[in-house]
């Protein structure tokens, strides 16, 4: 073992790792692992931020390690969490929040905020809301996104629609989709992924589960098969039956390729996909708020993306390194770079005042729409998002329900099956607690 200020040989480092002691570089920097699930532009941007952090000081060395998708990365963490093989920092998608809190292998970030008297109020309130449970912030927000609706402005013009005015309500989207449909192009599409369904329910003020969306206590029952969820399924069903809905499956790359190649005129994507799409589409891209039911008022969106979790039971020096890195990530300069390169929000809104952001928004005003939608969200139980330990399993249930719907099952039946499946998963999880 060696102290922070001394350097280790590689043999010593191997031994230290075995003994759960601090690993250092030849220069004596404390080395920590950071598991993440960023690929594509997200990974490129993250790697460069990590390199900048490592070069900016001489005490800590962060090693960023890609672990696959959010689901794959969480599965890997489940097998090493709480052991010496666990990374100091893990990026976990928002729906893993309750699981992580209950896992017993993380240290709440609130501890470091309090000890360091870190001014958390500088970060975006609507983002903190999601990760704050019982007045404690458990993880450090990092890559926050929400869904938006993207549309092909050229196709709008060709169909006689106003490209500067995106449809806002379900009935407006249904009508526009009918006008936009051609032999080669569908009107509207949505990735077969639970996240988009969750958002279309929440924007109407609908809750996903009982117990105040799982925030007042452990949820025992799904509520997403109520009237708000039904309206979403009916909205999709109407277009599917009219032949104006394009089903491009469960893969993000497929639906993005379909939009970019003119196979569909409107679709929902993550705000984190916006920059890449705008830069690559051979037509003008419009970005709009997600649609909402004609029978409800628009309440806004729920934070998506992921946050950073600190491991428990690792050396103090490693936690210190992880905390310093997390703070570095929240600075306006880093957040400005991250926002512009990826389309994720700046968790520190001061980043939006940076000259580079103002300049980029001038050239790509669509990026600002994503931020406006988040900042105009009304804080509520619905838009705070649900907490359930079995959320990833529930998402799978919703995927099956969407697939069944597109195959002709009735909206209510498809939804009820997903709710029952979710209830069973919740029951098992609550029993084994
Ligand atoms: O693709 P992202 O990072 O915007 O995340 C979307 C969802 O929130 C993941 O659960």
Automatic annotation (TrEMBL):
Keyword Plastid listed: no
Q: List the transmembrane segments.
A: none
Subcellular location per UniProt equals:
Cell envelope
The UniProt entry, under InterPro entries, shows:
Bact_solute-bd_prot1 (IPR050490), SBP (IPR006059)
A GO cellular component annotation here is: cell envelope
- UniProt keyword annotations, A-Z: Signal, Transport
Cite the SUPFAM superfamilies for this sequence.
Periplasmic binding protein-like II
Q: Which Pfam families match?
A: SBP_bac_8
- Top-level taxon of origin: Bacteria
The UniProt family comment states: Belongs to the bacterial solute-binding protein 1 family.
Name the chain's protein: ABC transporter substrate-binding protein
What is the source species?
Psychrobacillus vulpis
């Amino acid at each position: 073992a060696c102290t922070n200020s001394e350097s280790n040989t590689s043999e010593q480092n191997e031994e230290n790792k075995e003994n759960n002691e601090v690993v250092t570089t030849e220069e004596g920097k404390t080395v920590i692992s950071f598991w993440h699930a960023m690929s594509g532009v997200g990974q490129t941007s993250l790697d460069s931020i990590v390199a900048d952090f490592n070069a900016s000081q001489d005490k800590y060395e962060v090693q960023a390690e890609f672990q696959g998708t959010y689901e794959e990365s969480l599965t890997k963490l489940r097998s090493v969490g709480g052991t010496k093989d666990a990374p100091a920092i893990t990026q976990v998608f928002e729906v893993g929040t309750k699981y992580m809190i209950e896992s017993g292998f993380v240290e709440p970030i609130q501890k470091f905020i309090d000890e360091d008297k870190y001014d958390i109020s500088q970060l975006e309130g609507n983002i903190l809301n999601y990760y704050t449970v019982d007045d404690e912030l458990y993880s450090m927000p990092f890559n926050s996104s929400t869904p938006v609706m993207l549309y092909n402005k050229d196709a709008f013009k060709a169909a006689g629609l106003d490209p500067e005015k995106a449809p806002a309500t379900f009935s407006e989207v249904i009508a526009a989709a009918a006008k936009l449909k051609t032999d080669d192009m569908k009107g509207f599409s949505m990735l077969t992924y639970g996240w988009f369904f969750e958002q279309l329910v929440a924007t109407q003020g609908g809750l996903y589960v009982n117990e105040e969306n799982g925030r007042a206590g452990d949820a025992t029952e799904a509520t997403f098969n109520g009237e708000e969820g039904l309206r979403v399924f009916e909205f999709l069903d109407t277009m599917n039956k009219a032949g104006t809905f394009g089903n491009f499956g469960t893969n993000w790359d497929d639906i993005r390729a379909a939009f970019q190649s003119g196979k569909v005129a409107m679709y929902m994507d993550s705000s984190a996909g916006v920059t890449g799409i705008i830069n690559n589409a051979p037509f003008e891209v419009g970005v709009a708020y997600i649609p909402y039911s004609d029978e409800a008022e628009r309440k806004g969106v729920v934070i998506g993306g992921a946050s950073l979790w600190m491991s428990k039971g690792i050396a103090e020096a490693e936690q210190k390194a992880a905390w310093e890195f997390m703070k570095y990530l929240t600075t306006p300069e880093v957040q400005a770079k991250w926002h512009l390169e990826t389309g994720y929000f700046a968790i520190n809104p001061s980043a939006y005042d940076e000259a580079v952001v103002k300049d980029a928004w001038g050239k790509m005003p669509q990026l600002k729409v994503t931020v406006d939608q988040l900042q105009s969200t009304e804080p509520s139980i619905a838009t705070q998002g649900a907490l359930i330990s079995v959320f990833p399993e529930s998402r799978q249930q919703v995927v099956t329900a969407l697939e069944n719907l597109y195959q002709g099952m009735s909206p209510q039946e498809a939804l009820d099956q997903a709710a029952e499946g979710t209830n069973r998963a919740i029951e098992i999880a609550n029993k084994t607690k």
